[in-house]
Design a protein that fits this description.
Distance between the termini of chain A: 54 Å
Helix content of chain A: 25-40%
Largest interface: A-B, 16 and 21 residues
Bound molecules: zinc ion
Radius of gyration of chain B: 16 Å
Number of strands of chain B: 6
Strand content of chain B: 35-45%
Shape of chain B: globular
Oligomer: heterodimer
Number of strands of chain A: 21
CATH topology of the largest domain in chain B: VC0802-like
Number of domains of chain A: 2
CATH class of the largest domain in chain A: Alpha Beta
Helix content of chain B: 25-40%
CATH superfamily of the largest domain in chain A: ANL, N-terminal domain
Largest sheet of chain B: 6 strands, antiparallel
Order of helices and strands of chain B: EHEEHEHEEH
Strand order of the largest sheet of chain B: 2-3-1-4-6-5
Radius of gyration of chain A: 23 Å
Structural class of chain B: alpha+beta
Strand order of the largest sheet of chain A: 4-3-5-6-7-8
């Protein structure tokens, strides 16, 4: 099933043609209407006439979160406020909040994007969709609301929180699909169990669309085992509009609609584009947004991209699960390493706990050395030293296969590594740069 | 079979003392004791008079501690005793992974073994008439 079969199955060349045409129009528009972008282009020594094809994309300067903050609230808008029909805003955890605006077309395109996504993961007009993302200035609630309604699904606009009510309505109204954060889903299923409701057997819930926070394959498994539903990942940020893309039923990546967005993966350090399938920071150029178009927007999210045709028949490229944030990236012996990758490996090894520390040092010969400290769990035999040495070797080999760089593994007694409340600081970098 | 306590210790100053202090506080006597070291860490193996209490005390103090069954033999405290046993196990094709020994007023020389094939080792030692079946006091 497709929402927009003609567009979703266009060939790669046809999509590139659309992208090229829209990109050329976009650079002309922002240059003309936005003093911010005009200055930016001039600083970068680039003029709209230099952008002749998609290959010229890398000539354009990046746009970053800080630019939105510096131009708060409307400095980056490219239309007069009279054409803006809605604002959303994100709270400023670090610094000022950011405000985004939408024209009527922007809202339509946002709905179009999410409708395509929802249909790709099997949502239809027969579904009853409980939207447990927050409604309001956050884009999650209203984003899903408009798309689900456009699709003809029956919407339960319950918003976030009030968990007892969520469970009660899920049961009584026969909710089939829920949209919320993955951590809330886990909480909700435990809460339901305490109320004597087994989501797998006592409700009609069959799928969930989870996002708005980083989550892992392990969490997906936990949700699916606890609730018997199929869990889909959703991607989108308020700057790009809100929730926009989800996994399709193949669940091998998230389709990014190429007729609306140009996605690139760049090395977070150098800004250079990386090769196909290599990991780096997702950079998105919005080619249909009107109120707040973004040129080469640095999402800060680390992933990799695949552009071969998907098993679902859609031709649009796919980004894989978000591996971490660009800010968290470490460079060890020239290799980009993300703490989330290390965490992912450790979670799969029952002999060790979930807390860890990463220690970086530089040897006298100039080579970087990475040591991972991790706590023993109750499942380890400690009869001989080789029990421990073999475990350390096993972990080191698994890490090597994922990180492409060797790490020294040191197991320590349970409870001895530092615990963190809030944002964990698991990296100790002793290297003198 | 007797119960041995093994404890994982990081190679940091004071870790060993932390263990012996716990045992002392709980009035536990160490009968035999050995450390296998491997760089950043070591494994302490010991036989004590009150095994369960020792295990609980160490566990509660946050140590990674395990109880394992090991084979003990009781021999005369005289030259050639260990050799006789090692040879018998070797002849039977049984590997000795580690061994340590102790003597006390209560027992003759007690030798503790960890072997590759416990069941067969027990038979061999039983036939030699040296398998220790008592309790550590
Ligand atoms: Zn697909």
């Amino acid at each position: 099933m497709y929402w927009n079969p003609a567009i979703e199955r266009l060939s790669g060349e046809e999509l590139e043609e659309i992208q090229e045409r829209r990109l050329r129009a976009l650079v002309n528009t922002v240059y003309e209407y936005s003093p911010f972008y005009r200055r930016r282009f001039k600083d970068a020594g680039v003029h709209p006439s230099d952008i002749k094809s998609l290959n010229d994309l890398s000539k354009l300067p990046f746009t970053k979160k800080q630019d939105l903050r510096n131009n708060y609230p409307f400095g980056m808008f490219c239309v007069p406020l009279s054409q803006v029909v809605r604002f959303h805003a994100s709270s400023g955890t670090t610094g000022k909040p950011t405000v985004v605006g939408y024209t009527a077309n922007d809202i339509r395109n946002w709905v179009e994007s999410l409708c395509r996504a929802l249909v790709s993961c099997g949502v239809s007009s027969k579904d009853i969709m409980q939207i447990a993302y927050g409604y309001g200035l956050f884009t999650g609630g209203l984003g899903f609301h408009y798309a689900a309604e456009r699709l003809g699904s029956t919407v339960v606009p319950i918003s976030a929180g009030n968990t007892a009510r969520q469970v009660e309505l899920m049961k009584d109204l026969g909710t089939t699909v829920i949209a919320c954060t993955p951590s809330y889903m886990l909480y909700l299923s435990e809460y339901a169990a305490e109320m004597g409701v087994d989501i797998a057997n006592d409700t009609n819930l069959r799928a969930g669309i989870f996002g708005a926070e980083p989550w892992s394959e392990e969490t997906r498994k936990r949700i699916e085992e606890k609730t018997g539903i199929v869990a889909y990942d959703v991607y989108g940020t308020s700057e790009l509009s809100g929730p926009l893309f989800t996994e399709c039923t193949e669940r091998s990546g998230i389709h990014i609609w190429a007729d609306m967005f140009i996605a690139e993966i760049v090395d977070p350090e150098t800004g250079e584009q990386v090769g196909e399938g290599e990991k780096g920071e997702l950079v998105v150029t919005t080619i249909t947004k009107e109120a707040l178009p973004l040129i080469r927007w640095r999402t800060g999210d680390i992933t990799y991209m695949e552009s071969d045709k998907c098993g679902c028949g859609r031709t649009h490229p796919r980004i894989m699960r978000i591996l971490g944030r660009a800010d968290d990236m470490l460079i060890v012996r020239g290799v980009n390493v993300f703490p989330s990758q290390i965490e992912h490996v450790l979670l799969q090894i029952p002999e060790v706990g979930e807390h860890y520390m990463i220690i970086l040092d530089r040897r006298d010969d100039g080579l970087d050395e990475m040591t991972i400290q991790v706590e023993l769990s109750d499942r380890v035999s400690i009869d001989t030293t080789s029990d421990i040495l073999n475990l350390e070797r096993k972990i080191a080999e698994k890490l090597k296969s994922v990180l492409n760089v060797w790490a020294k593994v040191e197991v320590v007694n349970p409870g001895t590594l530092q615990r963190f409340e809030g944002k964990a600081k698991r990296v100790i970098d002793k290297r003198k740069i | 079979m007797i119960k041995q306590i093994s404890v994982f210790v990081e190679n940091k100053p004071g870790r060993l003392a932390a263990i012996t202090e716990k045992l002392y506080e709980n009035n536990i006597n160490i009968r035999a004791f050995t450390i296998a070291e491997a760089g950043d860490f070591g494994i302490i193996r010991m036989v004590v008079d009150r095994t369960e209490e020792a295990y609980t005390a160490l566990k509660e103090a946050g140590f990674t501690v395990r109880l394992t069954n090991v084979i003990a033999v009781e021999v005369e405290d005289e030259p050639g005793s260990l050799h006789k046993i090692a040879k018998a196990l070797g002849d039977a094709g049984i590997n000795i992974e580690y061994v340590y020994a102790f003597t006390s007023e209560e027992h003759k020389a007690l030798i503790i073994f960890r072997v590759s094939d416990e069941e067969r080792a027990k038979n061999v030692l039983e036939n030699l008439g040296v398998l220790f079946k008592g309790e550590i006091k």
